Structure formats: C-alpha cells, structure tokens
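Weekly structure sync, notes
Attendees: PL (lead), two postdocs, one rotation student
Agenda item 3: pending single-chain targets
PL asked that the sequence for the first pending target be pasted directly into the notes so everyone works from the same version. It is reproduced below exactly as submitted, 155 residues in total.
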Amino acid sequence: MRSFDLTPLYRATVGFDQVADLIDRALTADVAQPSYPPYNIEKTAEDGWRISLAVAGFSDAELAVEVKDRGLVVTGRKSDEDASRKFLHRGIANRAFERRFHLADHVRVTGASHVDGMLHIDLVREVPESLKPRRIAIATAPVSDDNLVEAKAVN
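Predicted structure, written out during the meeting:
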C-alpha cells in the first residue's frame, strides 16, 4: 500500500487542514471497514441529504443518534433477550453496532425517523448569512477643484 506525505499541503495552504485531515483519514483507514448495518446516502436537495440505515429488529429505544465533534454517530444496542428461548438456527444478526459519519462545516441533522426497519436521518447545510457571498457597492470619489488641472491652449 502506498503512503502519502501531506506535509507539503500543510506548508503551502492556510485553513485547509481539515481537508488534509480528511484525506489522511481516508488513506489510512483500515481495509476491513464494518459493513453492518448497510446504509445509503442520498442527495435530497441542493443542500440536503438523507442517510438510511437498515436496522431491522431494533426498536426505537435500542437506537441512538448523536451529533458530536462534527460527526454523526449512530449506535444500536440490543436489550438482553429472554434466556429461555432456544434457537435451532440463528441467522438474524442481533449484534450491537456503531456507525460514524463525518459532517462538513454547517451541516446539521434536521431529524430522524424509524420506519419499517429503516432509520432515516435527514441533514441540511445551512451557511450563515455572514459567510454567504454578497455584493459590495463601489463608491465613486467626489471630484474636487484641487484635483482639476487647467488646460492651456497651445497656438
């Protein structure tokens, strides 16, 4: 596997350290990423997304969605089952999970719903007014008599 040195990126840029950290995290991630539970990420609007996780068998009380440190953390913990149940075959996964998503600046979670074994988490990017582009009016300098130069006729 290749290893990339991002030091030149840190030396030549200011304020892009988060992008470099993201690239570094993506390149050094373990090959064996957890695949449970499966999920989709869909774009629902220009600045909106929906993450859908397949969490069949989990109740609302067994699921938790948290936003902390610019990250979205979804966890599922099964409650202890009745010990009197004896399975001949156990093919349905009831294991606990934790799935993490890194959120970009100004992306916030607007809601979550659990319907038909799917956990849907809606996200939206809300850029503050102070960071949106704005047009600056250009003022013209007033003409004063001091700035005028008298022209003399040559003949």
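Discussion points:
- The chain has two domains: 1-33, 34-128.
- The radius of gyration is 28 Å.
Action: rotation student to compare against the earlier draft before next sync.
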